[in-house]
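Students often ask why we bother encoding 3D structure as a string. The short answer is that it lets us treat folding as translation between two languages. Here is a chain of 360 residues written in the first language.
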Amino acid sequence: MGISIDLDYSWFVVFALLTWALATGYFPAGYGQSSQLLYWAAGAATAVMMFVCVLLHELGHAAVALRYKIPVRGITLFIFGGVAQIGAEPPGALAEFFIAIAGPLVSLVLAILFYVAQPLFAGMEPLLGIVGYLAYVNVALVLFNLIPGYPLDGGRVLRAIVWKLTGSLQRATLIAANAGRIFGLLLIFLGVMQILSGNPGGIWIAFVGWFLDSTAHAQVTQVRMKDLMAGYRVTQAMNAHCAAVSSDMTLQELVNGLVLGKGQRSFLVEHGGQMVGLATLHQIRAIPRHQWAQTRVDQAMLALEKAKCIDADAELWSALETMDRNGVNQLPVTRERRVVGMLSRDDIITFLRTIFELKA
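And here it is in the second language, the structure alphabet:
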């Protein structure tokens, strides 16, 4: 489907811990007739298959999102399982509901398949243990993800329902995110109680609760920021006096004179009185340092026709979403196909600080 699958560094930690826990606890306790080597092999295989199930869960979300023409930037497996990076908000409440419920439905189907398959592996104890564990894990994925708190799938289902009832995506997001914070704090409390009662597994419960609370809090902050930015345009926050440099300047001259000398990080590139490209620290760093003195700016720049631009009259929030979606920190601002300025994340932060101070 053209979706990038990535492994975060934390995935290797949880893979090792899960393999160890299964090899020293689950398999010896349930299948004590086998060798240690077989326990470790079964533990590693189970850990891999568990994350295959998590990946299929996330692919369920991604496949439905693609059906609604919503871009999916990728799927990352990490310490808490996996996350599908959906590139835009769904077009409506119904789309949000189907995207959210797709993952739990995939996990439910997997749980049923593994449960039904158990009799086929009777007498083959390590394989039976793997299948039984995967049935349990997929049921747990369904139940946990249906907790009605954002960013869990249940929270997104709640958001879809509130969105449908109120007609407001922002209000629905705020309600679902605050529900996520409540459930996160509840998990932290339960985890701490488990720790105090002598169960070290409470650390994991509290850690999951902290992750849920912090992610939901970030979503609440994002909604409030969007409210704060409502009605403001790119032209109000952009830098109309952005630096323009000659295309035949060397990278060494650019770095010494403007990057280090004046602390500037992005530049429009000019040739023959026309803006032809964009040069940023990202493009500069892509060139080996020993070649800076011989490399012209136009050899390292991103051509303007390939750069992501934003219209001067676009909403400021949409500019920030464009930056996030494309992984950039600045956008050339255009009006009638002519570059009239530059908008960076720093410009947006400065503008927001000014708005906040005026409203305080």
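Translate back mentally: The CA atoms of residues 138 and 255 lie 53 Å apart. Keep this in mind for the problem set.
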